[in-house]
Amino acid sequence: MAMRSIFRPDAAFCASVYGGGRRRSSGAGIPRFPRISNISTSSREETMKKAFAPPRKVHEQITHSMQPHKVEIFKSLEDWAKDNILVHLKPVEKCWQPHEFLPDSSLESFEDEVKELRRRSKEIPDDFFVVLVGDMVTEEALPTYQTMVNTLDGVRDESGASPTSWAIWTRAWTAEENRHGDLLNKYLYLTGRVDMKQIEKTIQYLIGSGMDPRTENNPYLGYIYTSFQERATFISHGNTARLAKEHGDLKLAQMCGIISSDEKRHEIAYTKIIEKLFEIDPDGTVLAFADMMKKKISMPAHLLFDGRDDNLFEHFSAVAQRLGVYTAKDYADIVEFLVGRWKVEELVGLSSEGRKAQEFVCTLVPRIRRLGERAHGRAKQAGSVRFSWIYDREVMLDGN
Ligand SMILES: [Fe+2]
Ligand SMILES: [Fe+2]
């Protein structure tokens, strides 16, 4: 049965920082903060915001919603995962590395290569940099995503070096993903176009905030979420590649393109897991799919904060939408793709609940498209916003 608990950010803050009232010395490496008991609620919130992460509300936290006996499904799929999922990883020796796409700091020509990179980046407009920074920050919060996958019952890496296929996948997937933030981070640093300190703070805030994907320790929900997200990142990095090419920077286009192709491999693996679950447990899987769709897929960086802009994620998303890097249409397209990929319409022999879930999922796309259009119309934010990531220069939110 699902367990419910409400996460209270202020309680967690008190427990972790003040350790149940124990006094801390102000030794090296331990930051000093004012004692919470001596300050008012609003300034306490302000302190929290400045200290670790913005005090955003998260949803009611439902945990362990998968029926316990279903853990056996994942144990029984161990060999299947070895033969069908691990094959979508690339051996390290065959993987690209960030170094190959960046000026080689061991060579005499390094400075010239950096100059050339900076010359190319001058042709790229600020709004593109805002989106690229947002994508990079999202990739850099990788510890959160590995943690998220390791919350899932039946597939988590129990020891940190577990030999199960599920754990091997998660570690190697994380290791592949780690190259994405690494490459984009180094590239952005070398351009000199962005405020690295603000960006680095944003990464620290985002990892400190975590994410709230509402996957309930449930691998059905978790792998539906990752299927969606890998496709979303495949699309968005593909679009940044296209734009970089349009701005005449073929090397940057190549970087975004190679990241996008990794995301595609990951999408194939995660969607295959859900395809297998549909085969073994169609009822449970269609219910999980409908559940995730009702909750809506939150983006991994939805708690984005740079220490200044309380609506940074919305502002970043508006620019990404305007440039066509990731749009409401893409969201609907991904849902449509997944419904087709998993042949949800063709499922037979479902329970009455399962049939309702099937009906819900199969009629969802036109509704998402209509709602997306209306929401976009309402949310259109005329004017521009200053992004700290680009030294407070202004960027248009919506060009229409
Ligand atoms: Fe990635
Ligand atoms: Fe990914």
How many DSSP E strands? 4
Bound molecules: fe (ii) ion
Low-confidence stretches: 1-39
Radius of gyration: 22 Å
- Major pleated sheet: 2 strands, antiparallel
Shape: globular
Order of helices and strands: EHHEHHHHHHHHHHHHHHEE
Subunit structure: Homodimer.
Function: Introduction of a cis double bond between carbons of the acyl chain.
Catalytic activity: hexadecanoyl-[ACP] + 2 reduced [2Fe-2S]-[ferredoxin] + O2 + 2 H(+) = (4Z)-hexadecenoyl-[ACP] + 2 oxidized [2Fe-2S]-[ferredoxin] + 2 H2O
Cofactor: Fe(2+)
Write structural notes for this entry.
There is one protein chain. This protein is mainly alpha-helical. 59% of the residues lie in helices and 4% in strands. It is built from 16 helices and four strands. The chain has helices at 9-18, 41-51, 71-76, 78-84, 110-121, 126-140, 142-149, 165-191, 196-209, 219-246, 250-280, 282-295, 312-323, 328-341, 352-362, 364-379, and strands at residues 3-5, 61-63, 384-387, 393-396. Helix 6 (126-140) packs parallel to helix 9 (196-209) and helix 6 runs antiparallel to helix 10 (219-246). Residues 1-39 have low confidence and may be disordered.
Structure described in brief:
The protein is mainly alpha-helical and 400 residues long. Helices cover 59% and strands 4% of the residues.
Keywords for this structure?
mainly alpha; two-stranded antiparallel sheet; 59% helix; globular
